[in-house]
Amino acid sequence: MFTLLGNGILIDPFNNKVIDNGGILYNEEGTILGIDTTDNLRKKVFELTKDEKKLYLKIFDVKGKTILPGMVCAHHHFYSSFARGLGIKNYNPKNFVQILDQLWWKLDNKLSKEEIYYSAIVALIDCLRRGVTTVIDHHESQSCQIGSLEQIKKAVDIVGLRASLCLGVSDRYGNGIEGLKESEDFISNLRGSIFNIKEKSVYDKRISAGGIINAMLGLHASFTVEDKTLKEVAKLKEKYNVGVHAHCGEDLSDEEECIKKYGIRVVERFNNYGLLGNKTILAHCVHIDEKEMKILSDTKTNVVVNPESNMNNAVGCADVLKMLDYGINVGLGTDAMSSDMLSTARTLFLMQRHIKQNSTIGFVESVDMLFKNNTKIVENIFGKEYNKFKVGEYLDAVVFNYIPPTPVTENNFYGHLLYGVLYSSVDTVIVNGKILLKEGQVENFSEKDILKESRVVAEKFWEKF
Ligand SMILES: [Zn+2]
Hints:
Elements: E1 2-12, E2 17-27, E3 32-37, H1 38-49, E4 57-61, E5 66-69, E6 71-76, H2 96-108, H3 113-129, E7 132-137, H4 148-159, E8 162-165, E9 168-169, H5 176-194, E10 212-215, E11 217-221, H6 227-240, E12 244-248, H7 252-262, H8 266-272, E13 281-284, H9 290-299, E14 302-305, H10 307-312, H11 320-325, E15 330-332, H12 341-356, H13 363-382, E16 397-400, H14 413-419, E17 426-431, E18 434-438, E19 441-442, H15 447-462
Parallel strand pairs: 1-4, 1-5, 6-7, 7-8, 8-10, 9-11, 11-12, 12-13, 13-14, 14-15
Antiparallel strand pairs: 1-2, 2-3, 5-16, 16-17, 17-18, 18-19
Zinc ion (ZN) binds near residues 138 and 335.
């Protein structure tokens, strides 16, 4: 059986292509067989089968709406979902470390397994509803580290997205070793149950509703992690051939602390332990200097910037354009401010223009970071070219309720993305060729029930504050 997702305006940002009345043909396994006009794809089905009697073609007519590849959020924190609407007594931070101390560290030190599960599933639903099909999460729960990643995995399996999970190991309360144990157990279980091959870093098998899981080694940030822990992380990185996912230079204090304690900067410290490389993600990098950029470039380390979060915490603005000039693969994340990648890309270029007082910069780079650089990160981590339309690869697609009021061409679709598509709702989401959201309705589970249960769990959680 073949399915033809057709009659849409197909935008392929990776290959810089727009196909009017375009579509995608894919098979039962979810593998893409063709990307073309809807008419040409119909013809292709006949060519493929060569026998009309065997032909069974399902047409999914999107009625002129816009088809895009599934998007990637390269830095998220599912665990912070219950912060939405949370009131904290005497909350009055004067700087970034006080924000962590008065809100995030307090919150992640109160989470139970049930709360971790619900925080994750509601965040994943949010991702699904914004057309994000691959999420790279960074989890923290000092109160409940052991077994925490399994709770998130359970949520991913139900929602059916692709996700890379990790636990942000930290020594801030003396639990670094426990965090390392959880990380190793999760990675080895994932490998053992699926592959039994240590070298392979890809977990590419559909489980339950279709979640596809990978894992990284998480670190909170240089200023809360001791040398002995970094040493152990380096060993695990080597043993399992996985990348590290850490915050880096988010606030100036991270760099200052590192210089004071170790006489070197954060990127140098990570590099000295061999933690960098093309599978590693350093989130933020707001305060790194050019020497550090050079190291990131030389080691092919990915940087993920989170503009809304940086503005929210008033920590500064990453010099994205300079990092790109250094040849660094700079991607985009939300840092849990939302799960909306198009609006994050829009915020990034507006922020760059505002900071540099230059109304001509950052626009193309923002779209490229979302659609090209984030895809590259996924490729490095999963070893697969998801999130771009490629024949022979699994289909991850999003249909937006966007019928453009002006012509869309290969020369102007970036404008449509950041001025139009982002304000429209997501109609349909497909991962691995499997429909997870159809005409605005979640297909495989009761979203209403989960959100209702989550409100009850969140209310109980808030009583801890
Ligand atoms: Zn973060």
